[in-house]
Write a structure and sequence with these properties.
This is NUDIX hydrolase. The chain has 164 residues and is of the alpha/beta class. Helices cover 26% and strands 29% of the residues. Helix 3 runs antiparallel to helix 4 (134-149).
Length: 164
């Protein structure tokens, strides 16, 4: 056996890691985008959140939609995988999976989780893009493209560049 061999546990401990989050793109009958304004940080975002230990991204997205909005929505197609570098106090990269949540047929069924959210709004796409932080706004533009062309897009950093 080589002197450089590491036992699997030791080897895995040397690998880089990232935080995983998942969210959903939800729209209404007028093709407006649903965004949420968390009360624990500034700005607007997609409904969603950080995956729990051993939770799959699509299960995370469904759980977060149920918790934040009181809706039972099965994640549809994967629209965007967005890799973001460490930012501010976040020491590791973040990988976000954005799923298509479809159309909310009856917005009156939304039950806002007041412990985490100050506001929920259906907004025109361009208004939503303008409200999102720069690190997230490209995700909304890219999600619109992915919905239109029917396949997921990869987004790196906060840019508009996508790769398929």
């Amino acid at each position: 056996m080589s002197e450089t061999y590491l036992e699997p546990a030791a080897w895995f401990a040397t690998l880089p890691s990232a935080f995983i989050s998942a969210s959903m793109l939800l729209t209404d009958a007028d093709d407006r985008v649903l965004l949420v304004k968390p009360n624990y940080r500034p700005g607007w975002n997609f409904p969603g959140g950080i995956a729990e230990e051993n939770e799959t991204p699509h299960d995370c997205a469904a759980r977060e939609i149920a918790e934040e909005l009181g809706l039972s929505v099965e994640p549809g197609d994967l629209l965007v995988v967005h890799w973001s570098p460490p930012l501010g106090e976040r020491p590791r990269p973040l990988v976000n999976f954005l799923f298509d949540g479809g159309v909310v047929a009856d917005p009156s069924r939304i039950r806002v989780q007041a412990e985490e959210l100050d506001e929920v709004a259906f907004l025109p796409w361009e208004e939503g893009i303008a409200l999102l932080p720069s690190s997230t706004s490209a995700r909304l533009r890219t999600a619109r493209l992915a919905r239109a062309d029917g396949h997921p897009h990869y987004l790196a950093g906060g840019s508009d560049e996508t790769a398929e």
